[in-house]
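Technical note accompanying the year-one report. For the benefit of new consortium partners, we illustrate the data format agreed upon in the data management plan: each record pairs a sequence with a structure-token string. No post-processing was applied to the example shown here.
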Amino acid sequence: MAFNKLLLIISIFLLGAGSLLSQNFQAGIMAGPLSSQVDGDMASGYNKAGFHAGVFVRYLLFEDLAGQLEMRYITKGALENRLETDGYYYRSGLNYVEMPLTFSLKKNRFQFEAGPALGVLLFSKEEDAFGELSLGSYEDFRKLELSGIIGFFYEVTDDLRINFRMQYSITPVRRTLSSQVNTVYRYQRFAFNNLVSFGLYYYLKQ
């Protein structure tokens, strides 16, 4: 059901992008790998591999400044695998449909970008060494996530660009500690998505 909704949203986005091409917009498709972790959980390090894929539209605001809106499917989460050392294993998988809105400044073949992204959690899963975890002592992952993006594009050809991004949650994805637990900082009671990603962006012909 969630996958069907995602296909419907992307189809609507593509139809809108197609009509905008005649109005000096640019549109295209994108995909790439990523590595993620969740700050505030039981794991550490960018150990969980994932991917992101979707569509985008880009509008040139000024000669060197552009805005870009994307609609993409993205997998986030965390992984800690110490089965061979002390028997510990933990994995979380968070699957979102996400809409980044970034603004980029062009310098020669580079475009430096920053902006927010709004994500809607489609489904999540957690596992340990014994199998899938129930909700237990943690609250469920939150359905909405607001995150921040910073990165850059490199123009390979007129139609193809490569991208590198760092992305971090602005709003927490779940509470990990009760409000009754004393911490130095309030944010230490919460978990946040943290990831780095690469992408290929292909511009459709006008």
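Partners are asked to follow this layout when depositing records. The CA atoms of residues 118 and 150 lie 14 Å apart.
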